[in-house]
Design goal:
31% of the residues lie in helices and 23% in strands. By secondary structure, the chain is α+β, with helices and mostly antiparallel strands.
Length: 462
């Protein structure tokens, strides 16, 4: 018999959005509502920790818990997180770069991206140790939850029951949860798909041109410079002609960040096209990505003597998925909204989170970074499915079109969107409302958004 757990707010997935959702549910629930996060990973943070995206690059922050989290990490010691500025090319004329340390940068320098054309000299990021980040996330939730928060790690959601438009049970490999409200923060919208809500994969329903998938890895210093041996499985006669061709054509294009301890985080940008990844067998695709990491590392070491001082320390356990299934919810945020910006877009009166990151598509659909002129907002209707009354969807799989998803997926944006969903869930419980009946202006007030919007408007309209 599986244990049965009654819980007021069940958050499926504990990545950036799941953390934000749990934080606001605990904060505004004030210990009155029980809050639980379930995640297949043993730690919080999802893609931003276990997936190796250990950096918050520039992007609008908005008010929120990310600042507290950053301050906690920066305050711990110099080993947990660091602020960095400027991309520096490792080799002249090579299209890859390292973000190097600087003491001149402040957290606020990372909080604005819109309209920054000169990304090379303006690129400021917040880089953190994943284990420290996951640890601080858990600590923050335990403190805020005041005994009423529980994290169920290493637990995978396998199915749900629905009765009269409400999710009544969530089945995992270990337990059965009986939630009052559910927030789907699984990235690939697992709950939404179990519930049979309408979803989209790729562009225009075609399941094509899905943003590229990346296996991130970490390298550490070694005593003597050398070009490392490739693991036996990936030595000759192993071949991967299409990736070799890409390395020849575009060179080892990568984004490289330096950790506080001097290790390097290597993001080879797309390891595989999204279309190929999602059309193949998952285990085969993962194997292919691992092989490509070794080809990538070999090429990096061949072209850059600097890299010969390092060896691979780890391949992150979670593959980096930028885009997968997305909800087709009460409103779909579109390219028109993104380009109109928060002052002119549709449903601006419903905005609950902001983004200003350039539209960034990797792989064969890559069309270069499209820098935005002003931020845009994510309206409440983008987290509301059409057919379930006690479900909100806050993650990179919320109701965005493919173009929008290529901009607003950033970790900090997902934390903010999660916070808005956590606040909304408490609002619905308190006022005995379904998610479509929620008073959006009340939710925005609790999120302190009206005031924030005025400040932004002044800044961007002047
Ligand atoms: C390669 C790459 C580089 C990026 N670079 C940056 C960057 O530089 N800066 C930046 O800010 N953002 C970056 N991003 C974007 C950002 O990291 C992600 O979009 C963001 O972290 C997604 O957050 P999320 O909460 O929506 O989903 P995730 O972090 O993916 O969290 C989803 C969680 O749900 C869990 N889950 C899924 N299904 C189940 C299930 N059935 N049962 C239980 N748990 C489940 C997963 O284990 C996971 O922990 C990058 C993304 C990628 C892939």
């Amino acid at each position: 018999m599986k244990e049965i757990v009654n819980v007021d707010i069940l958050i499926a997935g504990g990545g950036s959005a799941g953390f934000g959702a749990a934080y606001d549910a605990c904060l505004h629930g004030k210990g009155k509502y029980s809050v639980a996060v379930v995640d297949s990973n043993g730690i919080l943070g999802g893609t931003s920790t276990a997936g190796g995206v250990n950096t918050w690059e520039m992007g609008i922050g908005g008010p929120g818990v990310h600042t507290e989290l950053a301050q906690r990490l920066l305050g711990m010691n110099k080993k947990a997180a660091i602020l960095k500025g400027n991309w520096q090319p490792l080799i002249h004329n090579r299209p890859y770069a390292i973000t190097s340390p600087s003491s001149e940068y402040f957290y606020r320098n990372t909080l604005r991206a819109a309209g920054v054309y000169d990304r090379v000299s303006n690129h400021n990021s917040f880089i953190f140790e994943p284990v420290a980040m996951a640890g601080e996330m858990l600590k923050t939730l335990k403190e805020t939850g005041n005994g009423n928060f529980q994290f169920y790690g290493n637990e995978t959601i396998l199915g749900i029951d629905i009765l009269q438009r409400r999710i009544t049970k969530i089945y995992t490999n270990k337990r059965i949860f009986m939630p009052k409200m559910v927030i789907d923060c699984t990235g690939g919208v697992a709950i939404v798909r179990f519930a049979g809500c309408e979803t989209e994969l790729g562009k225009d329903d075609s399941g094509k041109e899905i943003n590229g998938v990346t296996q991130i890895y970490r390298v550490t210093k070694k005593p003597y410079p050398s070009i490392d041996k490739i693991p036996i499985n990936y030595q000759h006669p192993y071949s991967d002609c299409s990736f070799k061709k890409r390395l020849d054509n575009v060179q080892v294009i990568s984004s490289i960040n330096e950790y506080p301890n001097g290790d390097l985080n290597i993001n080879p940008l797309p390891t595989i096209d999204g279309d190929e990844f999602f059309s193949g067998d998952y285990d085969e695709m993962i194997k292919k990505c691992l092989g490509r990491v070794y080809l990538h590392w070999r090429r990096l070491q061949e072209v850059s003597p600097f890299m010969r001082d390092y060896r691979i320390d780890m391949l992150f356990p979670m593959i980096g998925i930028r885009e997968s299934y997305r909800l087709k919810g009460a409103y779909i945020l579109t390219a028109d909204d993104v380009l109109a910006g928060f002052t002119n877009q549709n449903k601006k009166e419903e905005i609950i989170a902001f983004s200003d990151h350039p539209v960034d598509i990797h792989g064969s659909g890559h069309s270069g970074l499209q820098i935005l002129h002003k931020p845009y907002g994510i309206p409440y209707s983008c987290i509301v499915p059409k057919n379930i009354d006690n479900l909100l969807v806050a993650c990179r799989g919320s109701s965005f079109d493919s173009y929008t998803a290529a901009s607003c997926r950033l970790s900090r944006t997902m934390i903010s969107l999660g916070e808005a969903a956590g606040t909304s869930a408490v609002h619905c419980l308190k006022n005995r409302k379904s998610t479509v009946e929620a008073d959006i202006q009340d939710i925005r007030k609790i999120l302190k958004l009206p005031e924030f919007t005025t400040v932004l408007t002044k800044e961007y309209m002047s």
